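As promised in the previous annual report, we have extended the structural survey to additional targets. Below is the entry for Acyltransferase family protein.
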Amino acid sequence: MTRSEVQSNPKWVQLVRALAILAIVFDHAIYPSTNAHQLASTLYTVTNWWDIPLLFILGGFAIEPVERSWQATKQFIGKRLVPILGTYFGAGVLLIIIGHFVYQDSWRYTGTFLLRLIYGGQTLDGPLSLFWLFTVYLLTMVVVAGLLSWINSPAIQFLIAISMFALGISYNNIGFLNFQHTPWGVDLVLMTTLWMLSGYYAKKYWLRLTYGRFYATAGILIYFILVYCRYQWNLNFELVLKNHLIKTPFMAAWVPLFVAVALLIICQQLANTKWLNWLLPVNRFTVPIICMAQITIDIFSRVSFLNHTLILWLLGVVVPIVIAACYRGIVNVVRRS
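The corresponding structure token record, generated without further manual editing, is:
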């Protein structure tokens, strides 16, 4: 989930990632309304089924086995892991300081928040509500790269990943020492490994896929049937990864995968048109949106006429893009001067 990664994928993969980012921001914009409106609660639940998992599935499109040498390992750490850590701590500290004034926190609370940034994972809230993604993504990359590099058999790789997934959905919550959650959300990697590994092999064998339109139609149809069942009869399936809220666990494995396949096929079919080109900036600024969406929503929700889900959703996407674009423009001008 680095800048180079999000821009190096084929156009149709970039479009799908943009849809995932839009869905994640939508979840955060609509969440305050979930207790008051059934429709809002349903929309929040059914987008959580696939938006976060989709990021990890797409992460598999950008990962490759690492040669069994110190030089290759060093290069993997320097190019893939260090940039994520730099964003995590750099943007995290900056947002905590900004949040101190926005939320009018005490300096004691702000200092504690900085310590929580080190521990990370599900302990992060407020402006860092999405920052658990960085560490879980990083750890998942390490595990999947290890599987691909040290185990040659795809069957054994998937056996390990499926076993990890089964373990990950077998408990409600797991702590560490005296903390309620594990550091960096490491236990969530038990689930995300299967999704990222599936993404790697999806990319590897994608061109062999036949009857794509049939699979896309079937996937979308099944998804909307499940959505209707959730709204009408309160289908007992929830998947909120950060909170480890998983109901009907066996569905957590296949629902994100078939939704991802359907979206990938649709975006591949539409990539040669210009209909979805407006999504490309969302992909290009994936990291700034993840970093700034929550604090943007929190700030503008204090203005009564802006405190509506669709407006907050739009602002949660557009404002980070504008800020990041201006920052990059200034940096480029300084470098050229």
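The chain has a mean pLDDT of 93. The first helix runs from residue 3 to 8. These points will be discussed at the next consortium meeting with the crystallography subgroup.
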